[in-house]
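Q&A FORM
Asked by: J.P.
Topic: structure of lipoyl(octanoyl) transferase

PROVIDED:
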Amino acid sequence: MESLHRVETLLSGLHYHPRTNASRNRVPRSVKILNTANHVNSRKCQCFDLYDQLVPYKKAWTWQKSLVEEKKILLDRNQDCPDTLILLQHSPVYTMGTGSSEEYLNFNIKDAPFDVYRTERGGEVTYHGPGQLVMYPIINLRNHEMDLHWYLRTLEEVVIRVLSSAFSITASRLDGLTGVWVGNQKVAAIGIRVSKWITYHGLALNVTTDLAPFNSIVPCGIRDRQVGSIKGLLGDGEEQGMVGDLRLMDVAHESLLKEFSEVFQLQIEKQTVSDLNILKAESFKFTRTLYTSIFRSFKKRHEHAFVPSLCVKEIKVATSVSPIMVNSFLIK
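REPLIED BY: S.T.
REPLY: Here is the structure written out as tokens.
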């Protein structure tokens, strides 16, 4: 657990939320992540925070486009157009940009391992899946900088700050390539679309992502470089298990919101999700497989002094499940 302890030590400036039920009600109140004393004129940003849910790509894509159309109507009426941020994970899927080439697919598109969507964003093919935090800023660049290069570099800056402040990982940009890199590994991909200066699509940060599906494509059309994840860069020892994955996701999520707020000088206000179709996203369910992973990890680390009650406590902290459920599992 050494690397995990290092992450938590580096997290002194962030507020860590214990994991709660994934079906909990979203917080409707304002979450003032930005220090407004330093940014007196900061604008508000509506945030739909579904970071612990798997949202099917097509639903999220349709949602983004509807928000863009709503904002364009407001602009046409000379009304205020608030910024919006969506944060989530996707079920496994491949997405292609508007000009993507199928030569970067290492499979027959008619017999793809996962769904494939050709979208209107820029860039080549990429993969989205569990363990990857996806951020979709739908913002009015008229209120920021009407410069697409500035916007891309600013999204990169958000991720670079997250990796540095929360994980002590030094990341950088590479000349001529969009995204965030640690050495030869790309840890965050960026692909955007802008319509009447309203942005959509966004960035994807690999936190605990299974990188195997990337082997079926040439990620972003770049053949001579690799894809990496935060977990891989920290060292994904067996002892971390599922508990470590959940903590890494929580830490990355908190830091991503904080740095986005600071870099774009926006005050984050969390919103409820009223669209029932979006609310049908696949919540993470803590199954017997998860309990087994935590149990084995705990037993390995405490093999000389194994105390079942302490293992129960660790599972409850990681999953917020009923003590009765955990105890019944251990009895089995």
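FOLLOW-UP: The chain has a mean pLDDT of 80.
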